[in-house]
Amino acid sequence: MPEQLHARVEACYQQAEAFFKQRFERPQVSFKLRGQKAGVAHLHENLLRFNPQLYRENREHFLKQTVAHEVAHLIAHRLFGNRIRAHGEEWQLIMRGVYELPADRCHNYEIARRQVSRYIYRCECPERDFPFTAQRHALVRKGRRYFCRSCRATLVFSGQQRLE
Annotated catalytic residue: which of 70, 89, 90, 164? Predict the structure, then answer.
């Protein structure tokens, strides 16, 4: 876990404690998040998860904005309870009033889409193929059947794969 990220989480908590004049329990911090999300706050577990790839590629903005964004979710939950909207007034108050940052709901980091393997299935229709995900291909291997909507034939694995 990068020390800078941990230090930023702690700084955000200290800022909130000075502003609200109360102590907040520190969350568990995980660096095990993949995909398009930069960070996630698990309110009931008092857990913050961050995306290491997006952190590496956007370090400065990530530390300033994303970490505060996720900490603000936990602070808002502790102060105002379960019935608030995720990016509602209470969360916005913390982002603007405590951290003096824009209350942006989403990041705009570049996300490189990785290539995925598709399993090519065919029916009796000429020149027609159906690219299946690895998950769907596994279901077929376990016995699930899929049908072509045009010819109603069972889709059969062609033995071919392609990267998309």
Answer: 70
Q: Is 57 a catalytic residue?
A: no
pLDDT for the residue 22: 97
Token pair listed for 35: 């995909």
Look up residue 101 and give its amino acid: L
Q: Are 49 and 81 part of one and the same domain?
A: yes
Q: By residue range, what is the domain housing residue 14?
A: 3-98
Give residue-wise pLDDT tens across range 122-142.
999 988 999 999 999 999 999
Given a cut of 60, whether residue 1 has pLDDT beyond it is no
**Which tokens in the block code for residue 134?**
């690895």
Rounded Cα distance between 119 and 6, Å, is 42
Task: Give the position of tokens 């393997």.
Answer: 117
Tell me: do 70 and 132 sit in the same domain.
Answer: no
